[in-house]
Amino acid sequence: MNQPPITVSRVDVQRIEALLAQAAENDVVDALEQELLRATLVAPAEVPPQVVTMNSRVRCREEVSGREYTLTLVYPQEAGPGKVSVLAPIGAALLGLSVGQSIDWPGPGGKPLRVSILAIEYQPEAAGDYHL
C-alpha cells in the first residue's frame, strides 16, 4: 500500500497512545499504531498548516467513488455526524496527511480505499488552539 510521509503533533500522539492502550486489538488499532511509529513527531507550534491533526476539519475525496467529504477528525467520544473518530478506518488514514497527499487504506470488508486530502478548512494548531 501507498504510505506517504506523515507529520503528527507530539500532543496528539500522547493522547492517541493513551486511547490505543485501552482499545481492543483490531486491524484499525494495529494500523494506527504502525502509522504513529513511522510519523515525524513535532511540537504543536511546529505543525505545518497543511497537515491533518486532531480536531482538523478536512475536505477529502475517496478516489474510487469520487465522493468528496468534509470531516472533522476527533477522539472516539466526540464522533458523530460529520465527525470521524481517529479509531475509525478513515480517521486513522487521515491523521498526519498533508494537502495533496493520498493514502491507500483498508476500507469496510478489507476493500482498499484511496483517500486524497483536498483542503484543510480548519486546523487547531494553525488557529493557535493548542489544547495542551
Automatic annotation (TrEMBL):
Q: Name one GO molecular function term.
A: DNA binding
- Classification lineage: Bacteria, Pseudomonadati, Pseudomonadota, Gammaproteobacteria, Oceanospirillales
Q: Name one GO biological process term.
A: DNA-templated transcription elongation
State whether keyword Kinase applies: yes
> Which keywords label this protein?
Kinase, Transferase
**What is the name of this protein?**
Nucleoside diphosphate kinase regulator
Q: Where is the Regulator of nucleoside diphosphate kinase N-terminal domain?
A: 4-42
Q: Which InterPro entries match?
A: GreA/GreB_C_sf, Rnk_N, Tscrpt_elong_fac_GreA/B_C, Tscrpt_elong_fac_GreA/B_fam
Occurrences of domain Transcription elongation factor GreA/GreB C-terminal (ranges): 49-122
Key word DNA-binding present:
no
Q: Which residues form the signal peptide?
A: none
